[in-house]
């Protein structure tokens, strides 16, 4: 039986385990990606582990999230990251160069390779025939050190693509349609693979859009074939010599299969406050808006900006509309300028921002309270925009531009104009200097890490005790995102390298009293939390595990976990367990005291254990899905302690 593309990639990089869905496998990692919101901790972890130099084929550190320099914290960390990239042999992309995912795609992505990134949207580079996976920072640090990446063998979900996109419909509508069909967690422990005759009608950047938001479906990754379109893109980037063809065998099969006919799609929109809350644009047309925002890793291509430019060209956006443009790379910004698109945006009333993630992660451009904001970004979790009571809708560039003109949510097909024809520049810009190349090894050894006053050493993590008696400090419902566990944005992320300070923002969107209550009992044994379905969806930021850990979180009991957050919890010594009977979620209450007896022994002996509720004559059953390797380091207090012991043997 033949193999599909995902299976070929996994087979070529398998170093341990069997390719049986659900079994833990170890994968050799060829490339890594870190960005500044997560990379500072990765670099501190490399230092703590005593790593000398990256063992990967290519590792890159990007600065694209924390660009606002309202004080010294962010620029200090930028200098730290630059020095760490030099010290450990990494490529480095400075502030203003652009968003990590499209820049990596332009300069480093290679078909047939594996990429692990400390950003959940690393999966975007699956558009290049790569196995690209988002993970917690410490997993990426391990990969940089030459260790395999461990993950549950995913099922492969084949999506046969047919047809061709109609006018006014683009790649964003494809992935929004997938979210409309399946919601935000249906694809857990799956890799999507798009194949079929319609794939040739999707450009490399169209594929990037679709692969990027596979994260919103809960997928481990998204894979496209490496074909003539991939070759065309790499030739455009002057890297054709790195191209290889990688397609599914003719007799390849998939664990799940479905079809998406591009010709039948229409403009779609994700309503607040979930990427899975999708309806056709026509169903909400007419609602007034405050903001229309174009950019981010979920719509990073030249075409995405050029089509919007042509829609607003020679016109003015509606009165009082904030029309925000966020170029995704310095290279693209040059092309947009040369072709007159920036002039179109500005004359129409647009606001031009620097190349980077910006408002996507709450770094500026926050909308007014309670007003509708249309964004081409990948997520609309509560408060992610920087405004606590936000109303963010996710749309295509066509819908965003059309709505900016009218001042209300608008189906772009209703505009009184012909669909604009967009062609790429005849000689697109190729900026080979976007990435500073790694220093030679001997020179790198002489580099000292530049640490500003905001960088704090990672505190020691204590081992898991044998007996544990802890209160439930917080009880939550379904779909709690990492942005709700620990917000992003300009207030919070500057403390990404200072765990004691960033912990003060922990769970503030859910319960503003959590930090104070946690600190009162942190040294008395800590606490537990209870959650519902899809707990920890969204970002790979390991701070969402580290901060609660610092505050004394010992056990998380939920109905089920999002993949990356589950792994992050285990990595930092927090026991992640699920209810055997999901109805027991109703039994537990905030304030209940849980008793775990012979905990270390029982999690080794069995994947199920009983938990007593003190003083209530109640017992519930929970279970874990940890591998023997994970059980070993979770008992030691986390992966850092495990690595230290290995290095000191």
TrEMBL record:
Gene3D superfamilies: Aconitase, domain 3, Aconitase, domain 4. It is an enzyme of class 4 (lyase). Keywords: Iron, Iron-sulfur, Metal-binding. It catalyses: citrate = D-threo-isocitrate. The keyword Mitochondrion does not apply. Residues 513-580 form the Aconitase A/isopropylmalate dehydratase small subunit swivel domain. Coiled coil: none annotated. It comes from the Bacteria. Pfam families: Aconitase (PF00330), Aconitase_C (PF00694). The keyword Metal-binding applies. Residues 8-285, 286-407 form the Aconitase/3-isopropylmalate dehydratase large subunit alpha/beta/alpha domain. Monomer. NCBIfam families: acon_putative, PRK07229.1. This is aconitate hydratase.
